[in-house]
Recover the amino acids of this structure.
């Protein structure tokens, strides 16, 4: 439950990171006429969780541990850029996809580790954390563990074998149906 000057700094940087990510996502959604409800949900849940962590000054260890889930971000960005540049059949794209799929599997281990940490420290968490923070933490951890990470792992694995931008693909499918 301890906090340090460094953890405060890092929590504030993480909040800025999620604001930047969401603003960028909104820009690209408008620019390319796409919408990823999973990414928007992820950014909203994460921003609320980190904002509450900063506001209430609690549980920096779990919050910073969960930020390790964002290790997939640079590889997702490279994947998206290579798709837009029509380089999805290159060795670089395939290597990046393998790393990305591996990182999504590591995300599962990190999430399980955070569940374990919460279980091991349940008594102090109840004692020192606000209910709104605990609810936010478990909503975020549950959505990530049981919805977002499995969904993205599946989509990135599928994308390795069929390299398309699934946001653009769903937009084309909706046009064809209408």
């Amino acid at each position: 439950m301890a906090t340090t000057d460094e953890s405060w700094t890092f929590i504030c940087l993480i909040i800025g990171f999620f604001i930047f990510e969401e603003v960028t996502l909104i820009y690209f959604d408008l620019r390319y006429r796409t919408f990823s409800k999973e990414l928007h949900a992820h950014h909203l849940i994460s921003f609320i969780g980190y904002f509450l962590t900063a506001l209430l000054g609690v549980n920096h260890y779990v919050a910073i541990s969960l930020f390790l889930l964002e290790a997939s971000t640079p590889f997702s960005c490279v994947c998206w850029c290579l798709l837009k540049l029509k380089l999805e059949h290159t060795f670089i794209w395939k290597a990046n996809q393998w790393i990305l799929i591996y990182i999504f599997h590591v995300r599962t281990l990190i999430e399980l580790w955070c569940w374990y940490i919460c279980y091991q420290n349940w008594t102090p968490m109840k004692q020192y954390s606000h209910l709104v923070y605990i609810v936010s933490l478990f909503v975020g951890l549950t959505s990530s563990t049981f919805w977002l990470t499995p969904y993205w792992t599946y989509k990135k694995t599928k994308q390795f074998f069929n390299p398309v931008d699934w946001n653009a693909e769903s937009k084309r499918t909706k046009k064809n149906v209408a």
Notes: The chain has a mean pLDDT of 91. Residues 116 and 122 are 10 Å apart (CA to CA). The chain has one domain: 5-177.
